[in-house]
Each structure stands twice: as structure tokens, then as C-alpha cells.
């Protein structure tokens, strides 16, 4: 189940499910070392005389309303249990500058009689993602539970203090521990360990009482001790307030123009910026997604990596919204990743090491091949030019001109077929097929145009001429070899030939190979709309015809060509924006922006895909690229609308 709530500060990221369970906890890098990794750190309530001796875990028979405080990366969620006559209101955050996750839980007894209540928390933590070799202790001096191993420490505490605790081995029957509500006060356990704490309160009829709970993350005992003292001295209430104010100030630092787009679009736009920031590591890596549930459907791997392609689009969204400082850190992170032959590989870990990959380094007959998607290399150069255009800071480009821009441009210039002028085969945008793709060729064209502009800026006129010449040869190759006159549209690829209609064919106009109103572009985009539209009430655009990835059922491809993707649907909107000659021409793009807004989750998350039958999120959620594409589309819409006004 994709995660509806995420809070983080670039070093500590916590994902929560709809039942208030912590399901992911990344530290000290976003996307690296998930110390919960999809297990459940649950919340339960026991009311004396009402539970039949058992704790009610949130989710059993609780109703809920999930959300965030407006323009803040602070949750605002409600849970109610009619049988127990109990309501909970939770505000949760990760402090923007301190690695501590803080919860405020307001408990209301809605019954007409007084009650004695217990609030319980379980912690299924495995440090370094390995359940072996941990220690968990109760520290009486700090009145806290501490899980530790090597240089990973997690301190769990509360205010007022919890009154019961238990530390025990993993495999302890949760129904026999947290569900009973009776903790045995065992103070230490080694190996694979779980821990539990409980708070007891007496509530009069109609009374509300507040409990604070926090998890401090550090690399030493003294660091988590410092954080615990900080929360106690500054108070958790004040620290939640600090977090809310910081995130509000961060996302509202610019006064964006939204033309006539409705408030719900504005809300999702700002929330998207906050979600994007939560998925970026403080050392610069822009992570694709951090939802561990995908492990079950992705060959026991995740999306917690830096894909250069995704990151380039996210960087462009952040630059256009004036968050260029984050983008500069990303380019610094990327600088050391470029292969000495001038290309990026498939994906990287947040720490800057090479990540897992599935692109083979040899062909089926044993010949050496490059395991790359060349669009990733090209798009980083495009994003760099976009960064320079917006910041106008040549000092930001100086460190990467010779170390990244020139080597990448040289590779793109040389890695081509002399007979067609087109790039040699590489893997496509979706990382599934190796060929000469229209999308890849379009991005390489754009990358070389941008590299030529950089070269001219630095006075390297011979290089500028060389890169422009290569770009023009690619443009001619796209027109001559990738456009099919009989089909009346662009091919997905050649070598081998693939006529599949793919939403990524929008790239021919998006990257300015041809103007958006060129007849060949128009016919291609109309094919995308007619063939890839999902013809259910959910709507949207699929990736490509007969897409089986994350398929929920077998269905007629004429009705459901594949699951709808937010990014693919927004690409169509971007083309309509490019095409618009009057305000009325923007209506279709406006409809798509509203479609996306209406199909975000109740907490404002954009997943990778949607279930074509009920519109529920599929695959990872949130997908950083989806939120970035929404931001880019809204900004393009407003810019075009103002130019036409």
C-alpha cells in the first residue's frame, strides 16, 4: 500500500501508513539505510472495560481522516473508534534542523463516563537494515528506550514519561505483547530486537489530554542524548511549531503567479514542492521514491536511488521555482558520478556509489555494450543549462564545465552511427528495450544544443560548432529515419524497429527538435491521445500500448492500454500549452491539471501510476518525478497564459 504521509529533513525521513504505523525510517541519508523497511511500528489504544482485555490497534476498527497542516510538512490526522468512544488527533514532523521525529497525540474521551486509557507503541527496528547484532535498552537516567548498533542510535521517549516498557526478541507475538497492553519491563535485549512502550492516562468524560512522543536519530549515544535533552528543554510543542513555521516560510518564499487556477491546484503545487524536498538527501542526491512497499513487486529492490533522468526533471522544477541552492548541491553530487568516457550509468545510491542495475554489459552473443540510457546523460546537461539560464551564475557552472559538460558532450557527439547521424543504441526511457529511440535522440539533440551554448559562453567556438553540427545531424536523422510517412507519426525506435505508440514521443516537440505545430508532431500527439487514453472513469494516459508493468488485471488494451501515469498525462498537457495561440486553447491543459489535482490522494500524494478501475495509487507513492512534472506543467501553463493575455 503506497504511503500517504511522509515527513523528513534531508537526513531523516519517516513514512507513515494510513493506520499511523511508521513503515519506513531512513537515516542518515534519504533513500539509504531504511531501519524499518516496510515493517510496522504500530499505535494501539486500550480502554479499561471496553477492549475485552485487548488493545485496539489503529486500523482494526478505526475511521480516519488524513492530511497535513496547510503549506507545512507537518501531518494533521484524525482517528476515531466508535466502540471505544475515543478520538486521536496526531501532528507529526521531522524537525528541519535536528534529526528527531516528533508526535503530538491529543486523546479525547468522547464518552459520558470517565475512563482509564493506555496508549501503546511498538518498534520493529533493524539497524542498518539487518535484524542481527542490535541492542535495545531502557536507560533509566534518560527514561528512554535506545536501539543501537555501531554508529546508529535511535532513542525513543515521551512527555510525560511512559510508565511501562518492554524490550524483547523479534518474533515476539505482537498480539501477545502490544495487544495485551501488559508490558513486562524487561530492560535489555541483544540480537534481533523489538521494543514497546505505553502511556497510561485517566480521562474524564469529554476530556482531552496530550502526549508527546519522539524518536531521535544519531550516530553516537551522546548525539541522541543531546537531542532528547533539546526536545525536553525546548519542549516538543515548540519544536513542532518551529518545524511548521520553517516549512511554511520555505514554500512561500516566492510569490508565485497562478493565473486563474483554482485554490486546490495552488495547494497541490506547494505541497508538491514540500514533498520533493523531503525526497532529497542533504548531500545532494535527488531520490526517485522512498516507498518500501515496492519491494514486494519489484524483485526485492526499491526506487530509493538517484536516477539521472528523474533527477534532471526535478532539478528543472526546483530551478524554475527558485530553489536553485538545492539544485547546485545536486550538480556537485553528480560531478563525481560521470564515467571517465563521458556518460552516466543507470542509477546511483544516495552516498554516490553505483546502485543496483539490470542493464547487461554484454549482448546476447557476448559482445561488449554500454549499459546506459543515453537520455540520462543528455538531460543532466539540459538541466545544467536550465540552471544557468535561471541563476545567471557562471560561477555555478565553472566547476562542472570541464569535468562534466565537455566530457558528456564529447561522448554524445562521438557515440553515433555515421550512416544515420543518430545516437547508437541504448536503453529507452523505461529501461526495458535497447534500440535507437525517438525519445533518446530528442534528448541528445537538446543536450548537444545546450553544450554548444556553454562552449560558446566559454569561448570554445570550435567545440560549439562541433556540438551544433552533431545536433543538426541528429535532427535530420530523426526526421529521415524515425518518422514513418505511412503511419503518419514517429516510431518508438529503429534498430530494431518498434511501431508501439509511446507517450514519450512527446519529446520531439518538448526538446525543440520540431515545433509543436509541425504536422508530424501533431499527428504523433493525436495518436498518443487516441491510443493511450484510458477509457474508464479514471481516465489519464498510459505509458505505451499494452503496458504490463504493475498490471492489476488482464484487460482489453483498446479500453485500458496500460495503467494511467501522471507524468505521461501531464506531457500531453505540456504539448497543448506549447500549441496554444489563445487563452481558450489552454482549456485542455487546464483540464489535465485539474484531473491530476483531483486524483492526488487525500494527503496530496502523486503516485507513479493509478489503478485504471478505481483511481487508487499504484507502485510507489510519492514519486518525486510526478510531483516535479506537475510543478513544471503549472509553471508552463501560467507563463503561456500570461503571454497570451
Q: What topology, given as strand order, has the largest sheet?
A: 7-8-9-10-18-14-13-12-16
Number of domains: 3
Discrete helix count: 15
Let me know the average pLDDT.
96
Helix amount, in percent? 25-40%
* Total number of strands: 27
Beta-strand level of the residues, as a percent range? 15-25%
- CATH C-level of the largest domain: Mainly Beta
Largest sheet: 9 strands, antiparallel
| CATH architecture name of the largest domain | Distorted Sandwich
Organism: Methanococcoides vulcani
Protein name: Glucoamylase (Glucan-1,4-alpha-glucosidase), GH15 family
InterPro entries: 6-hairpin_glycosidase_sf, 6hp_glycosidase-like_sf, GH15-like
Pfam families: Glyco_hydro_15
Would you kindly provide a written description of the structure presented here, covering whatever features stand out?
With 645 residues, the protein is of the alpha+beta class. The protein folds into 3 domains: 5-250, Beta-galactosidase, Chain A, domain 5 (Distorted Sandwich); 254-283 and 533-644, no CATH class; 323-515, Glycosyltransferase, CATH 1.50.10. The chain is built from 15 helices and 27 strands. Helix 13 (566-579) packs antiparallel against helix 14 (587-599), helix 13 runs parallel beside helix 15 and helix 14 packs antiparallel against helix 15. The longest helix is centred in the last third of the chain and has 22 residues, at 461-482. The model has no long low-confidence stretch (mean pLDDT 96).
Amino acid at each position: 500500500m503506497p504511503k500517504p504521509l511522509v515527513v523528513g529533513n534531508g537526513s531523516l525521513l519517516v513514512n507513515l501508513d494510513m493506520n499511523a504505523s511508521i513503515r519506513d525510517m531512513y537515516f542518515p541519508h534519504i533513500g539509504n539505510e531504511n531501519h524499518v523497511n516496510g515493517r510496522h511500528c504500530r499505535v494501539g489504544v486500550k480502554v479499561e472495560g471496553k477492549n475485552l482485555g485487548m488493545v485496539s490497534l489503529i486500523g482494526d476498527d478505526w475511521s480516519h481522516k488524513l492530511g497535513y497542516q496547510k503549506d507545512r510538512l507537518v501531518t494533521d490526522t484524525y482517528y476515531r473508534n466508535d466502540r471505544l468512544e475515543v478520538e486521536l488527533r496526531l501532528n507529526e514532523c521531522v524537525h528541519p534542523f535536528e534529526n528527531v521525529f516528533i508526535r503530538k497525540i491529543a486523546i479525547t474521551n468522547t464518552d459520558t463516563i470517565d475512563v482509564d486509557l493506555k496508549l501503546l507503541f511498538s518498534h520493529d527496528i533493524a539497524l542498518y537494515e539487518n535484524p542481527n547484532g542490535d541492542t535495545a535498552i531502557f536507560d533509566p537516567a534518560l527514561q528512554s528506550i535506545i536501539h543501537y548498533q555501531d554508529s546508529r542510535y535511535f532513542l525513543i521517549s515521551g512527555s510525560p514519561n511512559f510508565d511501562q516498557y518492554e524490550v524483547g526478541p523479534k518474533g515476539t507475538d505482537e498480539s501477545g505483547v502490544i495487544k495485551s497492553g501488559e508490558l513486562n519491563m524487561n530492560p535489555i535485549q541483544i540480537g534481533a530486537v523489538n521494543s514497546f512502550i505505553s502511556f497510561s492516562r485517566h480521562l474524564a468524560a469529554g476530556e482531552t489530554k496530550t502526549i508527546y512522543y519522539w524518536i531521535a536519530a544519531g550516530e553516537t549515544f551522546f548525539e541522541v542524548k543531546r537531542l532528547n535533552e533539546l526536545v525536553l528543554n525546548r519542549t516538543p510543542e515548540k519544536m513542532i511549531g518551529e518545524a511548521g513555521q520553517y516549512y511554511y516560510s520555505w514554500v512561500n518564499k516566492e510569490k508565485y503567479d497562478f493565473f486563474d487556477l483554482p485554490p486546490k491546484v495552488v495547494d497541490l503545487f506547494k505541497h508538491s514542492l514540500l514533498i520533493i524536498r523531503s525526497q532529497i538527501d542533504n548531500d545532494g542526491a535527488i531520490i526517485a521514491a522512498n516507498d518500501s512497499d515496492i519491494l514486494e513487486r519489484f524483485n526485492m529492490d526499491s526506487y530509493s536511488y538517484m536516477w539521472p533522468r528523474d533527477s534532471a526533471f526535478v532539478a528543472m522544477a526546483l530551478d524554475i521555482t527558485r530553489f536553485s541552492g538545492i539544485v547546485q548541491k545536486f550538480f556537485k553530487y553528480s560531478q563525481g558520478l560521470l564515467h571517465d568516457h563521458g556518460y552516466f550509468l543507470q542509477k546511483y545510491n544516495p552516498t554516490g556509489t553505483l546502485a543496483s542495475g539490470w542493464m547487461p554489459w554484454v549482448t546476447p552473443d557476448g559482445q561488449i555494450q554500454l549499459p546506459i540510457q543515453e537520455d540520462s546523460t543528455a538531460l543532466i546537461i539540459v538541466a545544467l543549462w536550465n540552471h544557468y539560464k535561471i541563476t545567471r551564475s557562471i560561477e555555478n557552472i565553472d566547476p562542472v564545465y570541464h569535468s562534466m559538460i565537455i566530457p558528456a558532450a564529447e561522448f554524445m557527439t562521438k557515440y553515433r552511427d555515421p550512416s544515420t547521424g543518430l545516437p547508437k543504441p541504448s536503453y529507452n526511457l523505461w529501461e526495458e528495450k535497447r534500440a535507437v529511440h525517438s525519445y533518446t535522440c530528442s534528448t541528445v539533440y537538446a543536450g548537444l544544443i545546450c553544450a554548444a551554448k556553454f562552449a560558446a559562453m566559454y569561448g570554445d567556438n570550435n567545440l560549439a560548432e562541433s556540438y551544433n553540427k552533431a545536433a543538426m545531424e541528429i535532427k535530420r536523422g530523426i526526421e529521415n529515419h524515425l518518422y514513418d510517412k505511412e503511419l503518419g507519426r514517429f516510431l518508438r525506435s529503429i534498430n530494431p524497429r518498434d511501431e508501439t505508440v509511446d507517450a514519450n514521443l512527446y519529446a520531439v516537440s518538448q526538446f525543440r527538435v520540431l515545433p509543436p505545430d509541425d504536422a508530424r508532431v501533431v499527428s504523433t500527439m493525436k495518436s498518443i491521445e487516441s491510443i493511450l487514453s484510458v477509457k474508464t472513469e479514471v481516465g489519464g494516459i498510459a505509458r505505451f500500448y499494452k503496458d504490463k508493468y504493475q498490471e492489476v488485471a488482464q484487460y482489453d488494451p483498446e479500453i485500458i492500454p496500460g495503467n494511467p501515469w501522471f507524468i505521461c498525462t501531464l506531457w500531453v498537457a505540456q504539448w497543448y500549452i506549447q500549441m496554444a495561440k489563445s487563452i481558450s486553447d489552454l482549456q485542455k491543459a487546464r483540464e489535465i491539471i485539474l484531473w491530476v489535482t483531483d486524483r492526488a490522494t487525500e494527503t496530496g500524494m502523486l503516485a507513479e501510476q493509478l489503478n485504471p478501475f478505481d483511481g487508487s495509487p499504484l507502485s510507489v507513492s510519492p514519486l518525486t518525478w510526478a510531483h516535479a512534472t506537475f510543478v513544471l506543467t503549472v509553471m508552463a501553463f501560467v507563463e503561456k497564459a500570461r503571454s497570451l493575455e
